[in-house]
Amino acid sequence: MWRRLSIVGPLLVCCGCALPAHQDLLPDDQRLIREQLVIHSDFALARHHRLLDELVARRQEIANQLQLPISDERIYIYLFATREDYRNYFTDRFPFYPDRRAFFIESDTRLTVFAHWGEHVAEDLRHEVAHGYLHAVVPNLPLWLDEGLAEYYEVKRGQRGFHAAHLQELDRQRRQRQWEPDLERLESLTSVSEMSLTDYAEAWAWIHWLLETTPVRRALLCDYLARLRTTGAADPLSRSLGSQGAVSTRALLGHLQLLVDRMGVEHGQ
Ligand SMILES: [Zn+2]
User: Fold this and answer.
1) Cα(first)–Cα(last) distance of the chain, in Å?
2) How far are the Cα atoms of 40, 209, 224, 225, 230 from residue 234, in angstroms, in the given order?
3) What's the 150 CA to ligand 1 centre distance in angstroms?
4) Which terminal Cβ of the chain has fewer Cβ within 10 Å, N or C?
């Protein structure tokens, strides 16, 4: 979400140049390798910490759900003990970057996550590592799709991507007539700096609708990812919905309303 940042592309040239000069500031007291993940931390972390076990398991879950292959490309995770250490590193190395809680950076040769062991570390790592697993096998993910999937997978296991905070925010804005779904507008966004919290929430909503309603919709998303993976490019997903666009918008709103109603029942409202 907006407290985090994913960087892909030209900025990475700068990242690559800067890395050696500040390497000593990176956490390196402990290194754990868990399948695709290489976790560097500046504090002791149990090899089978349940958060690490969850991150490792996510790899197969994502592959199964999205019908993607497994990659063995390593994802490097730098985990700082404190927010202060993390900020010092970024202030020193990337003084012009926004102050974000966690980063995912893709370069031509490396997938890297930066985070710190704070209150939100679990959702931050689930989100950023999901970017890593996806980028390892799918090139040129459209921004909204990349973020929507990462938001879906930042929710802990067993919740089927149900993101209560996003749902409540979209419901509130919809009731105040401040928001309507618009997939083509989301598709037009090309930089995370353009994405508001509502945009992240809407990206999550489209992904949740595609993955959690009907097999046909899930297949549509899987086919789209397969096209990207094999050809490196694909028309906007909204075109796959074709003349169904308006119908899809109504169906998305219906899906969100069902989720709101279900949440109300679960909370005894
Ligand atoms: Zn992200």
Assistant:
1) 28
2) 36, 20, 7, 9, 10
3) 6
4) C
Q: What is the pLDDT of residue 160?
A: 94
| Beta-bridge partners for 38 | 33, 76
What are the tokens at 248? 């899809």
Rama region for 19: left / alpha / beta (φ>0; ψ in -120 to 50; rest): alpha
**Structural domain boundaries in the chain:** 4-137, 164-266
**What pLDDT score does 4 carry?**
60
115 CA from centroid of ligand 1 (Å): 12
CA 19 to ligand 1 center in whole angstroms: 22
With vertex at residue 112, the alpha carbon angle to CA 209 and CA 51, rounded to the nearest 5 degrees, is: 65
Per the listing, tokens 């890593």 go with 132
CA dihedral 254, 259, 264, 265 (to 10 degrees): 100
CATH topology of domain 4-137: Glutaredoxin (3.40.30)
Q: What local confidence, expressed as pLDDT, does residue 20 receive?
A: 40
Segments of the chain with pLDDT less than 50: 1-2, 9-21
